[in-house]
Task: structure prediction
Amino acid sequence: MVIGKTVHLSGTSREDFLADAEWVAHEQVHLRQYREHGLLPFLWKYLVESARVGYYYNKYEVEAREEARRVVLANPDHVLVPLPRHARRP
Ligand SMILES: [Zn+2]
Result:
């Protein structure tokens, strides 16, 4: 997960994370969302959105999932791996 300008990894290694282009692209979207909204405003909006529609349908998660998938599919050498647990439909 991203807080501010840092990707915090839990239950995975840095190497496994970096080997998964889609996951890296997903977290890069969150880094951009923090930049665009600002740290505390984004955290607040993210939490309100999660409380309203849940994690999976949170619009910031939807944006990150869709953009990450586009980034990976746009790379002709792309390799799709199973979605990380946080990105799977509940
Ligand atoms: Zn996410």
Summary: The helical segments are 14-19, 21-37, 39-53, 59-74. Residues 2-85 form one domain.
